[in-house]
């Protein structure tokens, strides 16, 4: 394996790992706060139990997200020193603001986790909300830095040096809003469905369990709303990319030839050598419509760009199909959920629906990963779009493959342990309730 | 219309953002050493506890550092962010040529952070607790060791641009007596901070308190010893710390105060002033690091085959420093009140 490939894989793997924990770390606090608010207002012990159980999950995910994020802040330089040397000052502003937001998040988490019975109950509740808000803030700010790589602004590139740097303009780049919106919603969708799936699995085994029922409703409420909004955000992103990065859109759609009234490709396996797509289904003129709101608009194909600048078309296209497919599927589940809540409450706890939720549990995160593949692989061969190629940013250190292997083993191990810890959390929660139930039964018999 | 970002009131008063940023960088490093150092130290002390004591040490550690745990480690992120925003060349050179010790340090950080959280949030307390505890203790030792090694390597001057071979480029800059002894000095300082800090926390259990008093004396001795070793290794390997310190009156004062602090420390230890002694220990650790930074300033990295990289020579353009400087002011105004509230809530509850 070349150092270049190893470095790219290590970066992809590190980001792919971190993003899961970052999403959960920024969304779960809102679920936790929702349960907490119910407890404060109605005093139902089920809500208190759920808040405490979830808060332990948040602590575990936050710790893992914090260390993998620390690792990333070093890896950027360890793998891509040339990139960081030039880009560091330009995209410094969102990173330093992110540092501040992350700091506030850590402080608020400390207050929340250890503040039971110490803090005033509303101060304590607010601390939990602050964890979520500052988490979302840091996510949005980090995305600003990534958006700048797609839409580099705020500097002039003269003889391989950045001059006239304007960090504020760099932060407020064109891609920021669409990317941040899409990512924030994605975090809510992915976490909502993952959490709902886990609790649905428990309900299949233990249908009456009140904590799991409450948990499922809260998680699907947040995840469902986000799943509804996500296609709108996706449409905004597509229209943005069509103008700003037409090459990326062409790769996402495996759109080889420039044409007016371009068809939308669904599925299909691109054959880059022959510049065709096999097994695809086409919706006539829809690509033009989705990209430009005009069924006859011209959509640039890959052929409009020199072939050496093409991103890997197959990976970008397939990842895009996976993301969109899952997005639509989850939106349909959300539709079912809100319909059931509105008209057919009893259907919520039907085994069929619960099984569907279990099936959907990992899909949101698969879509998140696929989305990052689209945006990152779709930008290749550039690390800063149109300015610096990824290969030119590489560290001179040889043997990166060993670093990649180390990172991979470390993270796989960590991922496995976190899953195992979650299983144990659920086990204890279930055991506690069956004890309460049998006590209740015993109590009745004694009377 | 003049661009509002061109206007810099600090500059017009003869102040420059550059000094402010270097100041925040130094303060962040000092706070990281003191707060995260005490955290690392708690793990190191666990490593040197026997089996009977370990559980009570663990419980105490958790109680003492749990709430501030995550916040203590974010100083490092602040340091890194300042480096790559404002001194990008420093950041990219360090992360290129000290890739391996940084990677080892990161592995330590990952194991430590997760093992600590897993140990306390695992729903079932069984044999896995021992694995978390051992991982936590070992990683608590390794992280500051490599952190110190990296710090030593930046100043030793064995980093070679465009190296001829792998060892020359990526091993010898840090795999040497001097850098490793700076690493061990860091470990000793961490243990010293933790032991001192935990004396006051363990007032309810006299046996444990005895142990921390003993450990603080031992780690203090090792710190002084390692300090001497660092100076000796430096002289031997071609960097005269003595000359560097003698050339900087402020550094000499700093080291002088830190040494004089030993007497005060001893006095407070004998008279059982457990709150005051913490401040003295923190001040000593902070003074050692500050003196070092002042002695080294303005050099950020000593190179083997080129003139040193300085902070002012590698600073980002004025425009960037202005924006980051203001961002840091905003950040400090946000963070400090929150941090003080956090510490007040959990640390000074009884008083």
Q: Helix and strand succession of chain A?
A: HHHHHEEHHHHEEEEEHEHHHEEH
Number of domains of chain A: 1
Multimeric state: heterodimer
Tell me the helix content of chain B. over 70%
Low-confidence stretches of chain A: none
Shape of chain A: globular
* Count of discrete alpha- or pi-helical segments spanning 4 or more residues of chain A: 14
Largest sheet of chain B: 2 strands, antiparallel
Order of helices and strands of chain B: HHHHHHHHHHHHHHEEH
- Structural class, judged by helices and strands of chain B? mainly alpha
Please describe the biggest sheet of chain A, giving its number of strands, its sense, and whether it closes into a barrel: 2 strands, antiparallel
* Annotation, overall tally of beta strands of chain B: 2
What percentage of residues of chain A falls in helices of 4 or more residues? over 70%
How many independent structural domains of chain B?
1
Give the N-terminus to C-terminus distance of chain B in angstroms. 56 Å
**How much is the average pLDDT of chain B?**
87
Q: Give the percentage of residues in beta strands of chain B.
A: under 5%
What strand line-up does the widest sheet of chain A have?
A: 1-2
Largest interface: A-B, 69 and 67 residues
Summed up, the helix count of chain B is 15
């Amino acid at each position: 394996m070349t150092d270049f490939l190893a470095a790219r894989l290590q970066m992809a793997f590190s980001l792919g790992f971190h993003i899961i924990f970052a999403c959960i770390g920024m969304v779960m606090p809102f679920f936790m706060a929702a349960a907490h608010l119910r407890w404060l207002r109605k005093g139902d012990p089920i809500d208190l139990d759920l808040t405490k159980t979830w808060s332990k999950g948040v602590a575990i995910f936050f710790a893992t997200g914090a260390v993998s994020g620390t690792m990333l802040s070093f890896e950027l330089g360890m793998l891509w020193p040339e990139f960081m040397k030039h880009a560091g000052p330009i995209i410094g502003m969102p990173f330093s603001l992110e540092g501040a937001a992350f700091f506030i998040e850590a402080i608020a988490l400390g207050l929340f986790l250890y503040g039971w019975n110490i803090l005033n109950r509303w101060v304590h509740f607010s601390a939990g909300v602050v964890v979520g808000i500052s988490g979302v803030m840091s996510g949005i700010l980090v995305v600003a830095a990534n958006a700048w790589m797609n839409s580099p602004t705020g500097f002039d590139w003269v003889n391989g040096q950045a001059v006239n740097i304007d960090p504020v303009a760099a932060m407020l780049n064109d891609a920021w809003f669409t990317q941040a919106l899409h990512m924030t919603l994605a975090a809510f969708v992915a976490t909502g469905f993952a959490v709902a799936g886990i609790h649905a699995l428990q309900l299949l085994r233990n249908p009456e369990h009140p904590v799991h029922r409450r948990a499922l409703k809260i998680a699907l409420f947040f995840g469902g709303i986000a799943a509804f909004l996500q296609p709108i955000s996706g449409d905004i992103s597509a229209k943005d990319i069509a103008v700003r990065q037409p090459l990326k859109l062409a790769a996402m759609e495996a759109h080889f030839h420039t044409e007016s009234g371009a068809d939308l490709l669904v599925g299909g396996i691109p054959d880059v050598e022959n510049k065709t797509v096999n097994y695809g289904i086409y919706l006539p003129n829809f690509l033009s419509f989705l990209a430009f709101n005009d069924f006859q608009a011209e959509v640039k194909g890959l052929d409009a760009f020199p072939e050496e600048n093409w991103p890997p078309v197959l990976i970008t296209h397939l990842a895009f199909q996976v993301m969109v497919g899952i997005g639509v599927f989850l939106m349909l589940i959300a539709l079912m959920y809100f319909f059931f809540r509105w008209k057919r409450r009893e259907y919520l706890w039907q085994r069929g629906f619960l099984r569907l939720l279990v099936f959907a549990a990992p899909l949101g995160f698969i879509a998140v990963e696929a989305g990052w593949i689209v945006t990152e692989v779709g930008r290749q061969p550039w690390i800063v779009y149109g300015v610096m190629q990824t290969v030119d940013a590489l560290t001179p250190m040889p043997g990166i493959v060993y670093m990649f292997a180390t990172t991979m083993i470390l993270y796989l191990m960590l991922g496995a342990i976190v899953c195992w810890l979650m299983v144990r959390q659920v086990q204890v929660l279930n055991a506690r309730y069956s004890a309460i139930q049998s006590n209740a039964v015993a109590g009745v018999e004694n009377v | 219309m003049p661009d509002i970002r061109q206007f810099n009131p600090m500059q017009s008063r003869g102040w420059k953002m550059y000094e402010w940023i270097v100041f925040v960088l130094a303060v962040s490093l000092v706070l990281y050493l003191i707060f995260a150092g005490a955290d690392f130290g708690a793990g190191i002390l666990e490593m040197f506890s026997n089996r009977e004591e370990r559980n009570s040490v663990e419980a105490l550690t958790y109680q003492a550092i749990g709430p501030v745990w995550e916040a203590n480690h974010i100083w490092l992120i602040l340091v890194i962010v300042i480096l790559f925003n404002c001194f990008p060349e420093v950041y990219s050179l360090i992360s290129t040529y000290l890739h391996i010790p940084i990677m080892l340090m990161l592995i330590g950080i990952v194991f430590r952070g997760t093992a600590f959280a897993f140990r306390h949030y695992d729903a079932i307390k069984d044999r896995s607790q021992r694995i978390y505890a051992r991982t936590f203790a070992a990683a608590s030792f390794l992280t500051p060791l490599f952190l110190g090694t990296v710090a030593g390597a930046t100043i030793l001057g064995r980093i070679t641009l465009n190296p001829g071979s792998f060892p020359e480029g990526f091993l010898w800059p840090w795999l040497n007596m001097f850098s490793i002894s700076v690493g061990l000095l860091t470990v000793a300082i961490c243990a010293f901070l933790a032991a001192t800090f935990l004396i006051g926390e363990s007032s309810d259990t006299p046996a444990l308190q005895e142990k921390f008093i003993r450990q603080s004396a031992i780690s203090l001795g090792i710190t002084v010893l390692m300090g001497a070793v660092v100076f000796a290794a430096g002289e031997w390997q071609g960097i005269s710390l003595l000359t560097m310190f003698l050339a900087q009156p402020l550094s000499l004062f700093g080291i002088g105060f830190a040494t004089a602090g030993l007497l005060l420390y001893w006095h407070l230890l004998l008279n059982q002033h457990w709150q005051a002694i913490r401040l003295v220990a923190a001040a000593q650790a902070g003074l050692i690091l500050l003196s070092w930074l002042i002695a080294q300033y303005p050099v950020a990295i000593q190179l083997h085959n080129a003139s040193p990289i300085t902070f002012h020579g590698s600073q980002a353009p004025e425009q960037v420093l202005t924006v980051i400087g203001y961002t840091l002011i905003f950040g400090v105004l946000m963070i400090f009140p929150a941090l003080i509230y956090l510490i007040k809530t959990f640390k000074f509850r009884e008083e």
